[in-house]
Amino acid sequence: MLTVFSFLVAISILIAVHEWGHYRAAVACGVPVLRFSIGFGRPLLRWRNRAGTEFVVSALPLGGYVRMLDEREGPVAAQQRHLAFNARPLHQRAFIVAAGPAANLLLAAALYAFIAWWGTPQPQPVLAVPAADTLAQRAGIRGGEWVQAAAIDDHPEAVRSFDELRWRISRAVLDGRDLRLWLADGPEAPALRTVELPLSQLGSRELDTATFERIGIVAPWSAPVLGDVLPDGAAAAAGLQPGDRVLAVDGEAVPDAQTLRARIRSAVDAQGRARAQVWRIERGQQTLELTVTPQAQRQGEAWVGRVGAMIGEAPAMTVVSSGPLAAVGEGVARTAEVAGLTLQMMGRMLVGEASLRNLSGPLTIADYAGRSASLGAMAFLSFLALVSVSLGVLNLLPLPVLDGGHLMYYLWEAVAGRPLPEVWMDRLQRGGVAILVALMSLALFNDLARLLG
């Protein structure tokens, strides 16, 4: 229920803001707006303002529209023809069309700025012990280091949390560039050394779990302590309990939770056969040795081990916040970065450099809406900002039936000195609908594939 409610709230807000952008721009240009509609189906609310605009909220908030006075959509009185949308100057029509996506981008910037000013608890940027033969391990990272700054070029940026570190890594991976890290023993300690992560050597620009595992930076440092233990899992069968601290596995020390996860995963061979492990644990004042046989589980094309328990204590947290003016700058900068990365990912999918599996649809969006809402208001606002950027960028694509497609028509009109012929506009609209349906079908297929494992 939370997932459905959060999804409907998010979609309703984003659509309302998008259409409000069109509406306010039309009013500013003197174009009468006949109807402002949020949703489809049976109207739940209906009212008119002094200008005569009918506002409608319908039962299915999965879309919306602003209907303006336009000779192409219905008869217009002779005394009002000069006010019709199709009769307005080119720059006004372009402004009205672009105002919708612009409103989504402004909403994202405002949300990111508010989050930066309010502050959010995030994991401290302390590195876990990297797995063997990963980029981090080969670069000399041992685990326990505090990342003070990171740089893709020669201008280091301060790293205040592990989330910010992941963001820097993501940007470097998508750009195919190396990343330099400044490491220290603590937040106030002087930087002891720098390491270079040769991310350009990955040979892939996919931002998935496998990529971060190859890099060796998956999660922040946390102690190898067990959390919740499932009653039907391998951990419970071995006699493990919440709060047990794992000291060693098969005689090898376990310095942190990430190392323990790697040992569990590697307990299953390529054929799905699991081998027993001897865990030395600390329980209160006791030191015990227990035999644990992880359960084999399919993950993509490989088999991995699972024990049915939460691995690792909650990492140490820090509150990341900024002053009002700095927060506004961060909001604008984050919106620009996310928009740029979104366009970059779309371009790479278009030329085949990135998998089309990265395309997500309504089911994935709904899933993340519910997850973010369950984590609190700030997490939900961050999710809302991310989707708002995506919606703004998507609508600016030069695809017929989208706002960007109409802007493309206006560009033709500005260059050629005349509107695009109706016959060509009709053909492009039909083609745009076909492309949009194909993309939506692919996104829905990806959603179902994720949900079905």
TrEMBL record:
Q: Where is the PDZ domain?
A: 194-254
Name of the top EC class for this enzyme? hydrolase
Q: Which GO terms describe its biological process?
A: proteolysis
Segments traversing the membrane: 94-118, 375-397, 431-449
- In short, the EC number is 3.4.24.-
A GO term for molecular function: metalloendopeptidase activity
User: CDD domains, from UniProt?
Assistant: cpPDZ_EcRseP-like, S2P-M50_PDZ_RseP-like
Q: Which UniProt keywords apply?
A: Hydrolase, Membrane, Metal-binding, Metalloprotease, Protease, Transmembrane, Transmembrane helix, Zinc
Pfam families tied to this protein: PDZ_6, Peptidase_M50
Needed cofactors, names only, are: Zn(2+)
State the SUPFAM superfamilies in the record: PDZ domain-like (SSF50156)
**Family matches, as InterPro entries:** PDZ (IPR001478), PDZ_6 (IPR041489), PDZ_sf (IPR036034), Pept_M50_Zn (IPR004387), Peptidase_M50 (IPR008915)
State the coiled-coil residue ranges. Answer: none
| One cellular-component annotation, GO | membrane
Identify its membrane topology class.
Answer: Multi-pass membrane protein
Name where it's found. Membrane
Domain of life per record: Bacteria
Instruction: Tell me where it mainly resides.
Output: membrane
Family recorded in the similarity comment:
Belongs to the peptidase M50B family.
List the PANTHER family.
MEMBRANE METALLOPROTEASE ARASP2, CHLOROPLASTIC-RELATED, REGULATOR OF SIGMA-E PROTEASE RSEP
Protein name in UniProt: Zinc metalloprotease
Starting at the broadest rank, the lineage of the source organism is:
Bacteria, Pseudomonadati, Pseudomonadota, Betaproteobacteria, Burkholderiales
